# Entry
Amino acid sequence: VSAQKPLPAYADWKDADALIVHSANTIETRRAAVGTGGITPLDKLFIRNNVSPPPASIMQDPGAWVLEVSGVAKPRSFTLAELKTLGLVSVAMVLQCSGNGRAYFPHKPSGTQWTTGAAGCVVFTGVPLKAVLEAVGGAQAQAKFITGTGGEAIPAGIDANTVAVERSVPLSVLDDALLAWEINGEPLPLAHGGPLRLVVPGYTGVNSVKYIKKLAFTEEMSPARIQQSSYRYSPVGAASSPEHEVVWAMPPKSWITQPSEGSKPIQPGRVMVTGVALGGTSAPAKVEVSLDGGKKWHEAAFVGPDLGKYAWRTFALIAELSAGEYELVSRVTNAAGETQPEERLENNRGYNNNSWRDHGLVVQVA
Ligand code: MSS
# Structure
């Protein structure tokens, strides 16, 4: 067993045993550590930063954090304290990195080799984006996108477009998007984008800009590299560019979380097989489990409350397992009738892997 890298200072409050530290900016939840309660505990939630996070000092006086709003009838700035008076909403939702499941692509895409754990289900609380837009008299007529800029300082002498975390999402997300300052009932910590974060339910993690300092209603997408060329679906072997489709919405996906990480054999007899299932942009409606790599499927039961279409649901199936090897896989069907596919959508950087086969868990019963 190789020694685990230590947690970085900004995340030293996390549960190290539940996490795989790929680097100081890329920390994954172990498969079995998401638990079965539905909501992912904050100390076990994954972290992904494209560049190092801002200093902890930005959390000293959260109420004084300033957000600049432009591309609207009455452009202005708001402090977080002011935003807190405009409206209040909570949404339970899956936060999942675009590259989650990258490790299963056979062509070994560059980037963090995430397996199942660059994902969690959390409750964000904040102000509906709509309420903010109303307070500034609505978006300019030409607006097609909502563009958020992260609060990382751009080092002197560097072209901002090469490093800025600035993402654009279509204006159509307006009904569900929010600016959040709370997660799972706690003030949003720096690691997850505190003091203030743009949250876009149903979209991959990169679209939810942390420590947001600028919100713009724009005619064009951001010129930043992270929008123009990264996070695009390009064919394997081809560098991505603006002509390729942007990584925005998440497809339906599920995976088995227990029993075990597959290393130690489990006892023969009754085994509780559990997992998590997300619908993407519509609710998870049905989930099936196979114990033999997809030959025979059994409908599993959803566990716990239905927290809305953007949340994942834990599922469970009781299985009677005699000695042998089992390939446990699951597949979800969402309310729109889309079923999680057997095969991944091949793409150069390894985004949005939702193949049920790739996420299987092989267990030995002995
Ligand atoms: N934001 C900012 N500002 N920065 C950075 O770096 N990243 C991304 C998001 N946002 C960033 C941001 C990503 S990419 C992700 S996933 C997310 O975030 C994560 O989250 P958390 O809280 O978990 O850490 Mo992939 O698609």
